[in-house]
Design goal:
This protein is mainly alpha-helical. Helix content is about 55%, strand content about 0%. The chain contains six helices and no strands. The chain has a domain at about 50-135: Cytochrome Bc1 Complex, Chain D, domain 2, CATH 1.10.760. Bound molecules: heme C.
């Protein structure tokens, strides 16, 4: 009996006063959904822009040691003695946190590698690790 009541067409149901409000809720939900979609699209766009910025940042600040493609074949790259970002084996033996720390703090008191914490945020450093270093490929120049 109860099921019949629920699935009966709206016309046959006794109308409650509040039923007109239903549409408003629907509009509200639609709007909330739409704005969250717009927000996430804007966020994704901001992330893309940030990624491009960080790639530029890499070329300006890191490429002279780590190479344009991350393979450490740049001018000063030989000093690195085999820190090849493109090497899957090397990638496995390090982790994101360790890399972020080196990018921010540098290596050997900034003598082997300067720290960049005054120029970029932790989020930026993380983006460099996950979007640039982790995705680097031999011969593929890191550029926006
Ligand atoms: C003056 C040269 C130089 C510059 C410039 C430089 N690095 Fe380095 N980088 C090094 C050296 C040297 C090491 C350490 C190699 C070792 O441990 O044997 C290193 C190590 C690293 C590591 C490895 C950390 C780990 O897991 O052991 C990362 C990641 C890194 N650098 C990222 C960067 C980024 C990103 C930039 C630019 C923002 C940068 N480096 C700029 C020289 C440099």
């Amino acid at each position: 009996m109860r099921w019949n009541y629920i699935s009966a067409p709206a016309k046959e149901r006794p109308r409650k006063k509040s039923e007109g409000v239903g549409m408003n809720w629907l509009a509200f939900i639609a709007l909330a959904f739409l704005s969250s979609f717009i927000f996430s699209a804007a966020y994704a766009h901001a992330q893309d822009t940030k990624k491009g910025e960080m790639k530029k940042f890499y070329q300006v600040n890191c490429a002279r040691c780590h190479g344009a493609d991350g393979s450490a074949t740049g001018e000063d790259g030989k000093k690195l003695k085999g820190e090849d970002f493109n090497d899957p084996k090397w990638q496995k033996n390090t982790d994101d946190e360790k890399m972020i720390k080196v990018i921010l703090k540098g290596k050997f008191f900034g003598l082997a590698m300067p720290g960049y914490e005054e120029l970029i945020t932790r989020e930026d450093a993380k983006l460099i690790v996950t979007e640039i270093i982790r995705k680097s490929e031999k011969g593929k120049i890191i550029a926006p």
